[in-house]
Design goal:
By secondary structure, the chain is α/β, with parallel strands linked by helices. It has two domains: 162 residues, D-Maltodextrin-Binding Protein, domain 2, CATH 3.40.190; 107 residues, D-Maltodextrin-Binding Protein, domain 2, CATH 3.40.190.10. The protein is 44% helix and 19% strand. The strands form two sheets. A six-stranded mixed sheet has the order 2-1-3-10-4-11, sandwiched between helices. A five-stranded mixed sheet has the order 7-6-8-5-9. The chain is globular.
Length: 324
Amino acid sequence: MTSRRAIALLLLGSMFCATSLAQPTSDYPNKPIRLIVPFPPGGAIDTMARKVGDDLRKRLNATIVIENRPGAGTILGSDLVAKSPADGYTLLLNAPGGIEQLPWMQKMPYDSLKDLQPLSLAALAPNALIVPSTLPVKDYAEFVAYAKAHKGQMNFGSLGNGGTAHIFGATLNGKLGTDAVHSAYKGDAPAMIDLVAGRLDYMFNNVVSAINFANRGSVRILAVAGPKRIAALKDVPTLGELGVSDFDLVGWYAFFAPAGTPRPILDKLHAALRETYQSKEFKDFLAASGLGEADASIDHFTRQVADEHAKWGRLIKANDIRIE
């Protein structure tokens, strides 16, 4: 009798534990969700966070609190999320910098592949190779010829040390053997001012800025990075089409959760976010912002982040790219 009673108590205890563990998942969300944006207010990614947050409020029937935590190249905000409880109530909206690139160039307070769980790919942010309209080249072939004829005399710019524009610019510099000098700027505006003025010979920048300046006649767009052409630049070839390797990587904006977040919560969030991405309002926002649509499962995006992390690492090491 005693043994039967002990077994019954054990079974009852197991059922109670299972129920109590499942409860936080089954009624999720039942309190406000914090969405950390490691960028200042007002930029494209901050605008995206607020648009997505407004839509998620309706789909999840929950309060979404947007918190801007800029600093240290998105490291501060990313670290906050990496060290938060894995319960689905603290999420991160980030770009590749603090996830796939910076870990190869400096010591990080978190392991981007182990401490953060890729959740949802929101949009693609492709880059374009641009030159000032005063540079006597009309296409990539002429640019290559010009670069070889002006070895040691060229300059290229970036939007900051260690970012995509820096990595791509240095990679192209290495492939062409031009010994161009890198100049890092604090953002898009000052870099474009010097490019248009002819103080820079080339740079990579987001397609939105590239198109805006090309429409004014200030720059020429020679090629785009990524595996396929961009809808807004149908006549501009990819670098891959031109026979230039290592430029298949595309920037993105994406959501992450702390590692260890229960899969049912991840699935619920992913489904709600995917519905948001398919709305006309969100698609119109992407089109107006020059961003590309994206769609990836949690598992696919997780593999993508790991793969891209390794690819960026190879480019960074091969070109000895450092944060100066």
